[in-house]
Amino acid sequence: MDIISLIFDGVILGLIFSLIASGLTLIYGLGNVLNLAHGELLVLSTVTTAVLSQLLGLPLILALLLGVIVTLLASAFLDKILLIPAYRLVGEDRIILGLYMTLALAYSLHGGLITAFPNAYLTINVPFFVIEIAWITLRSSQLIAALASFAILVSLYLFLKRTWHGMAIRSLTQNEIGAMLVGIPIKKYRLMVFIIGGLIVSLAGFIRSVVATVGPESGVEFTILGLLVCVIGGVRSISGTIFAGILTGLVYTFLIAMIGTYLAYVMLLVFVMITVLVRPQGILGERW
Amino acid sequence: MRNLLKVENLDAGYGPVQILWDVSLYVDYGEIVALLGPNGAGKTTLLKTIVGIIKPKKGTILLDNIPINGQPCEKIVDLGITLVLAEKELFPLLTVEENLLLGAFNKRARKRIEENLELVYTIFPKLKERAKQKAGSMSGGEQQMLAIGRALMSDPKLLLFDEPSAGLAPLYAKILYNSLRNLMEMKESLGILIVEQRVMHVEQLCERGYIMTNGRIVYQGEITASSQALEFFRKYLGVR
Q1: Residue of A nearest to B107 (CA)
Q2: Which residues of B touch chain A, with CB atoms under 8 Å apart?
Q3: Would the pLDDT of B99 be above 90?
Q4: Would you tell me which residues 161-180 of chain A have a C-beta closer than 8 angstroms to some C-beta of chain B?
Q5: H/E element holding B137?
Q6: In this predicted model, what pLDDT tens digit does every residue of A36-68 receive, in sequence order?
């Protein structure tokens, strides 16, 4: 067993988890809605792309673009229409109604996609080459996936830290009334966060399709893994979420290599429970 | 004389519950006006209605003779009214400096960030010392300074204060009111409306004021400890 390549696989999987979870965390932090349809949004973009490029024969770039657009429309629909009744409530009531609404969307998307397009598996082939640095061997797909995820996460981080929009989003996750008092329009930023979350999660789907295959049924798994990462990272903390994603990816990859896929999932849940027991405030604590 | 803020016959409340009944008041340029009254009189509701957090049911709110009632909060901040609530409503995990910068979120204020930051640091030198510290790690008095500093960063024409001395040690309350006086000297056209429960805090700061009970304005005029009318309200309404 090649440890170096396992570590690399784990980091890539972890970066993809971080992408999924960062959108979840942003939406939860700002809108107080835990988006159970987040993994389905990922699948929506891969299925759209697969259908358009394989069935209709569109060029891949165009199919990818349309995949993103469909996902963004679904995100906007979720925020602007489906969640209207939830936004009329505050606190726990909003969280609970938000869970129902997003769960309903998740189920209808899941059912619709696996019934209508059962064979819409997306694999993105990139030019194959191998890079050898000292004793480490990397496939081109791994390298591209890692660099792309890393670039997205860094841009997200810089966006949140360095721009007015980012500052507004960070302030809204901490104190909605305070943000209102300084004149930050809440609804506008809620939509923006849903759009950013949708964009990042559809890119996560494409990146996953570079190193593996994404099928129409995998949405639930991505949602659950994303939620686990959020919990480990501490909700509302982006740096914690990124760190937790990589950690979870590594642990999961090593568990699969050592004890097999099914038991690995169980052990991963045990790992999450232990982490939450030891550090309930999130793995890096309350910070941005 | 043009009023900076003019509220006329305002009715407002939460959902079906009406809190404010036919409230009228005004604040002129360069004036600090007190709004006194016991707990539950509707003072905070009035401030929240002026900035657009609560939508008025009836009546008009004029800023510089332009009606602003019914506008969203972000629009009203942009027009020049900023509210400082008693709970301060800071961003605890952001630094003092980031909190101040966010105060200047509206487009008008962004153009004057440096000027206003200097003003805030002159009035509250403590905030400059703590610029890189997290807002949540400061004492109550310092957080109150930050809340006022953040409000000043929004480049307001009118500042609304909801019990700025609440929860502060008497010494801090004194420092705070002294700094408000300094502020008025530095920004002459600024208007301030201060909600307080205690006359003693505002009598040296304000010449004029209003008293509210049960959602109605019941007194308007001079605010001094010796004023006879005020003495009456002090005894019967618990205004101290």
Answers
A1: A183
A2: 51, 53, 72-74, 76-78, 82-85, 87, 89-94, 98, 101-103, 105-106, 110, 150-151, 154
A3: yes
A4: 164, 167-168, 170-171, 174-175, 177-180
A5: none
A6: 999 999 999 999 999 999 989 999 999 999 999
Say yes or no for a CB contact (<8 Å) between B105 and A170. no
Which residues of chain A does B78 touch, with a Cβ-Cβ cutoff of 8 Å?
183
Q: Let me know: does A17 contact A211? Beta carbons within 8 Å.
A: no
Pairing label, strands B5-14, B17-27: antiparallel
B95 DSSP assignment: B
> What superfamily does domain B1-80+157-240 belong to in CATH?
P-loop containing nucleotide triphosphate hydrolases (3.40.50.300)
- The β-bridge relationship of strands B81-84 and B158-162 is parallel
Model confidence over B223-239: pLDDT tens digits? 776 666 667 666 666 65
Q: A182, B103: Cβ pair inside 8 Å?
A: yes
Q: Which residue has the tokens 């598996």?
A: A121
Q: What percent of chain A has pLDDT over 70?
A: 98
Q: What's B18's DSSP letter? A: E
CA dist B153 and B112 (Å) reads: 8
Cβ separation A175–B83 shorter than 8 A? no
Separation of alpha carbons A272 and A229, rounded Å: 8
- Which residues neighbour B74 within 8 Å (Cβ) at sequence distance 6 or greater? A180, A183, A184, A185, B106
Nearest of B39, B45, B40 to residue B20 by alpha carbon: B45
ipTM for the complex? 0.89
Among A17, A13, A11, smallest CA distance to A225 is for A17
What are the structural domain ranges in chain B? 1-80+157-240, 89-156
Q: DSSP character for A214?
A: B
User: What residues in B contact A171, CB-CB < 8 Å?
Assistant: 91, 94, 102
Tell me if chain B has a CB within 8 Å of the CB of A288: yes
Separation between Cα atoms, residue B75 and residue A77, nearest integer Å: 26
Provide the H-helix boundaries in B80-214.
96-103, 107-110, 113-123, 125-129, 140-153, 170-186, 199-202
- Res B240: pLDDT: 55
CB pairs under 8 A between A and B: 67
Chain A partners within 8 Å of B82 (Cβ): 181-182
Rounded Cα distance, A168 and B227, in Å: 47
CB-CB neighbours of B40 under 10 Å: 12
Average confidence score pLDDT of chain A: 92
Name the nearest CA neighbour of A242 among A149, A159, A176.
A149
